[in-house]
Amino acid sequence: MMRTLAVTGTLALLLGLTSPLQAADIEAGKAKAQPCQACHGKDGNTPLDATYPRLAGQHASYLEKALKDYRSGARANVIMAGFATPMTDEDIKNLSAYFASLPGDLHDLSHHEK
Ligand code: HEC
Asked: Which long-range contacts (CB under 8 A, 24 or more apart) does 2-5 make?
């Protein structure tokens, strides 16, 4: 019994120590998002041009994939390649988490509430 508790405690401690390193940092993403706002809108919902995509409330995994594809060239766009090329994986994760966290109606959130 004591042994089980000790093991559980150690696991909880390990998880507590490792998860912040892997979790996306929304504040860090926000700090890097200023240049993006010029085109994608201050709130991620009001792009400069109707053909520029809205980012607010998009799935973080979708945004991450888009940025990685611009960086690798798998998705070709001169403008976004310029922004994505210098990004680290961490930048991509944080920026994606930030834009995903903004209120937006790109996809139906009702299934999250059930
Ligand atoms: C000069 C204007 C401009 C700036 C600044 C800009 N973008 Fe973009 N972004 C675009 C355009 C235009 C597209 C659509 C490109 C395409 O057709 O693939 C786009 C596409 C994207 C997409 C793909 C969205 C989707 O729905 O597929 C993401 C993600 C993105 N931008 C993130 C960012 C981030 C993060 C920044 C800041 C680091 C940024 N952008 C800065 C113009 C810009």
From this structure: none
**What amino acid is encoded at 61 in this protein?**
S
Structure tokens at 58: 């998009």
The residue whose C-alpha atom lies closest to atom 22 belonging to ligand 1 is: 66
Reported as a single tens digit per residue, the pLDDT across 87-107 is: 999 999 999 999 999 999 887
What does the alpha-carbon distance between residue 88 and residue 97 come to, in Å, rounded to a whole number? 14
- Give, in order, the Cα–Cα distances in Å from 104 to each of 9, 52, 54, 68: 39, 15, 9, 22
Please tell me if the CB atom of residue 40 comes closer than 6 angstroms to any atom of ligand 1. yes
Instruction: Give residues with Cβ within 8 angstroms of 84, minimum separation 6.
Output: 67, 68, 70, 71, 92
Does 102 sit in the ligand 1 pocket, CB within 6 Å?
no
Query: What tens digit of pLDDT does each residue of 13-66 get?
Result: 555 554 445 689 999 999 999 999 999 999 999 999 999 999 999 999 999 999
